[in-house]
Design a protein that fits this description.
It is built from no helices and ten strands. The protein is an all-beta fold. It is elongated, with a radius of gyration of 20 Å.
């Protein structure tokens, strides 16, 4: 029987300098192990290749992807190629606004 494969992202939006997770949920309905290759590419300078041995039943993978400050703000895409299928996963990167800390002392604002 064929594998049931689904890939999704942990969020559709992510801040620079944080992680987004690629989640793979793969069901092996057979009562024997199967090999599966997972090839990931993107426009954010991230790529990875995994060659997994899937045990019978549901196999769940969580792959962390760090988005540095160098990743541009806006729309991006992960492309996952596995089992002769291509999955296009879109997400938006935004800048995390940092508020400067202002201390008030006896001498006024610093």
């Amino acid at each position: 029987m064929p594998l049931s494969i689904n890939f999704e992202l942990s969020s559709s939006t992510v801040a620079q300098n944080s992680f987004i997770y690629l989640i793979g949920i793969i069901n092996n309905p057979n009562n024997f192990s199967q090999n599966l290759s997972i090839n990931i590419s993107s426009d954010i300078n991230f790529s990875a290749f995994y060659n997994e041995t899937l045990s019978p039943g549901v196999n769940i993978y969580q792959i962390p992807i760090f988005l540095s400050n160098n990743v541009s703000i806006g729309e991006h895409q992960l492309i996952v190629y596995s089992n002769n299928n291509t999955y296009y996963l879109n997400f938006t990167v935004f800048q995390l606004n940092t508020t400067p800390i202002i201390e008030i002392t006896k001498n006024g604002l610093e």
